[in-house]
Amino acid sequence: MAAAPTIAVEKVCYVVLRAREFDVRYVTDEPDASHASEDKFWETLSARRNDPTIIELVEFIRAMDVDEQAELTALVWVGRGDYDRDEWEDAVALARERADTSTARYLLGTPLLPDLLQEGLAAFDLSCIDTETEHL
Question: Is the separation of the CB atoms in 15 and 135 below 8 Å?
Fold first, then answer.
């Protein structure tokens, strides 16, 4: 049996909801935002670094322990198709080793972050549906 994420789904879904708030305000106002390069995404993010949503997300991710941060990153990779659910442990191990930038910076610089996290959860038959309705 393949390993599964141990990070609380509610934490992942909180990141999804807050990242969507950012996407709606800043990224999707450009006509071709769905095809924006990572550099363009970071230009947008850097221009909005004082945005309360970004500050809140950075603080939330930084407050996670190392294992949670690694699993959050691994969920993005599973959601993007870099790994599948059977490779979960490998994805988490690589995410732990990744030390070239902060996890918050890396994740918030990932275009389509909320979608990738949701796809990653779905690979393990997990969802944000209940969490999203609680926050509406």
Answer: no
